[in-house]
Design brief:
This protein has 27 helices and 37 strands. With about 900 residues, the chain is α+β, with helices and mostly antiparallel strands. It binds one RNA strand of 85 nucleotides through helix 7, helix 10, strand 19, strand 20 and helix 16.
Length: about 900
Amino acid sequence: MLVSSSTFRPITAIMDANYRPELIEAEAQKQWEAEQAFRAPDPNGPGFDPTRPKYYCLSMFPYPSGKLHMGHVRNYTIGDVLARYHKMRGYNVMQPMGWDAFGLPAENAAMANQVAPAAWTYANIDYMRKQLKSLGLAIDWSRELATCKPDYYRWEQWLFTKLFDKGVIYKKLATVNWDPVDHTVLANEQVIDGRGWRSGALVEKRDIPMYFFRITDYAEELLSELDHLPGWPERVKTMQRNWIGKSFGVEIHFPLSQPAGQDVLKVFTTRADTLFGVTYVAVAAEHPLAQQAAANNPALAAFINECKQGSVAEADLATMEKKGMDTGLKAYHPFTGEAVPIWVANYVLMGYGEGAVMAVPAHDERDFAFARKYHLPIKAVIKPADGELNLPLTEAYTENGVLFDSSDFSGRTSQDAIEKIALVLKGLGLGERRTTFRLRDWGISRQRYWGCPIPIIHCPSCGDVPVPEAQLPVVLPEDVVIDIGSPLKKMPEWSNCACPKCGGAAERETDTMDTFVESSWYYARYACPDNNEKMLDGRANHWLPVDQYIGGIEHAILHLLYARFFHKLMRDVGLFGAENVRSSANAGSPHPNPLMKPLPFGIPEGEGAIAKPKPIDEPFLNLLTQGMVVAETYYRELPDGKKQWHNPADVEVERNEKGHIVAAKLKSDGQPVVIGGIEKMSKSKNNGVDPQALIDQYGADTARLFMMFAAPPEQSLEWSDAGVEGAHRFLKRLWKAVHEHVAKGNVAAYSGGELAEAQQGFRRQLHQTIQKVSDDIERRQQFNTAIAAVMELMNALARLDGDDAVTRSLRQEALEAVALMLSPMVPHIGQALLVELKPGFAFAQAAWPTADASALVQNEIELVLQVNGKLRGKLTVAADAAKEAIEQAALASPEAQKHMEGKAAKKVVVVAGRLVNIVV
RNA sequence: GCCGACGUGGUGGAAUUGGUAGACACGCUGUCUUGAGGGGGCAGUGCGGAAACGCGUGCGAGUUCGAGUCUCGCCGUCGGCACCA
């Protein structure tokens, strides 16, 4: 059975005077499942209609943490509203769902509860799938995938081996957080105040070999393609641009002996104009020069050792106290030959550039603070173009300006000087212009168990050998016992193997991949999750790119950048085939299908419409970044210094007259708890609110409606269930309105004929509402105002009196439109009401209503009358009144006369359709 | 520390392109209905004022006939910072 006409159960069984969500929702969900109502037909497959353009609507898949939280409800309801709306607009919609199933929490749960990570994960998936289904989402469950299953990750391993052969993946040393007591690598999240979360030991930095993806090879494309993504929020593109961090600067070589010998210290700077202000150079603790100087300097060796403590997280490095020590070594200024001291500084990172910086205290804040602290000289060489510096400096002057005390370069502007200095340096062989990126290559090795095994075999004679395709997948054993560290490293029966090249004894790599790898390509696999022969087939060409991607703003950089990168990797491996074009159904106009109704409002023209992205180069055409659902956190400090987090549901709060929480105590013992601030709902802070209680009490439709009504999608939302009742009441009122209308007998919707003034006004509001709701959902993606507009319409309908045939036909027209417009948000009640209003109605084929232009015509409009910008009255004029006539009417009005106080009008501003402002 | 965003009644929020601040809800107050509870209906609800009117969008300045919206500075909150996902 494909798309059968929906015949809802005889309504009398469900449609009593009271709204019964538990009955309606169970019935609707059962019917949708039986009909496979949300199966997305593949090209040339059963049920495929080539005249319908495709719409791939994807919400970020969840980590199966145990149960749904409010953020999930928000995310998936937003996606569902867009998917259902587009289905009603005639698109072939695909909305899939799956599980981001590898990750650290499964190992933590395994240690805490003595269950295997796999068993824990699968149980969570089963429970959460049930929860998602109870929300009534229009998901094609036949495409479900879980990243921890070999039939998924085998293709990740397959791609890894291809990329390894291509040289896109390489191995190098990288620094990790090392817990010296537990002998294990810690995630940044597991380092709290510089100590391991379980052992409490001071964390050390340690270098270990890891595999890296050469994402920096794609930095230029990842940056420039952002300009071809008009459907992405500007803030996300800005964050990605800054993260990639392309900068133009100069590499400068400081000779290490005088006269200039072969050894030089290389630094990179974007401010080569400040070169004459250099008073020292600073190197990272791991820099070879630092190591060399420490060999016979115990104090320096001790300092370098101290630098090795602490986490590797950049936020920690950037906020820690800046410390340094003189190495006693000198470098020589490339122009003046002057000797400058070489310092070791903890704020210089070995992984960045050359692991060394030139320090100009006068013109860099960090260098200024450092020079102050260690009494290093501060030498100013840049002054403002139109003034002088106040010397001695009290803070760094970091603006561009004009050079002084800079030999032949004095008097030049910063920009000009950078060019010239780079040229002269090049002539001397002591540097040149360089473009650098802040973006670093992506290290994907994880010393953990619950992840995708890296398909490499280490052979003593052949080196690192990728696992041959025929031997894939390298299956992760699921029946294991977890304690500290990865069990793979203690399973020789798993890791011992034969070298694929020479056949000799070899060992498997026991590291697994970063879980960001799985989430970087799942969107493509949804097109063909059942293909056991290939990673992607022709269906990916049809469905990609994703037309609408929806997910939390917290993924603005890492996940979205990695997925964009992977898309390009898959393209370059040839996975999208030779015919890299989107299916013709979607080419050109957004609505090319003649069978489809036009939008009830104009399509915006301009930049966005013209700058069409090149589809196959980018995975996500349009991006909606949902704001976080946040909640207050509460904790108590335990005797061992650790924090015990309490759920807001277990805490009673006291508020001041401003509504701010001033005190809180635990309900169970009445004793105070510490207020920890508002943060995104998470397991680790125990501030998640379980949506299940909400669904159980009010039904999925109320939960969905309230979520969409509470705030616009992009905004962060502090959770409060005040207002849920209001959403529920609205649905009850709607139910009652339809019930009372239908109880008087079925009528056809209004289709023409004379209307009284009040009826005409109501019908205009109805069609204005259709226009607004369409625009709110499709263009603005702001559902709270769409719902508010429907509520206003319902309030107006309640005021529409009379049971004559015309009024009843208007009421029918309005209720049909309301049920249709609300269906994307509250599909269960939407279907039930439509079947009630139009017996035999086929919900699966429900079409979005269109505004009747003739209903929108207005003869008179009301303008706002201002005097000196202050509201003084209203002015009713003919809709087509000329500007002069409006001015005359405004000046003649008693309100204007009164507030002009006899003065003459200096100016009259008329804004068409809005206001008149008289300036005196 | 760096990057990005946000800040509007008692509360969630609206104001779409610089043009009526507070739509729509929650809560509260009054009132009607009900044996009570619950539910529902009606009216009111930014602050001050009897009113006229004045004030009002985190704070301070600026641009404009007109600023919640634009510019600059400050304060506060949230997200990210490469091994949480």
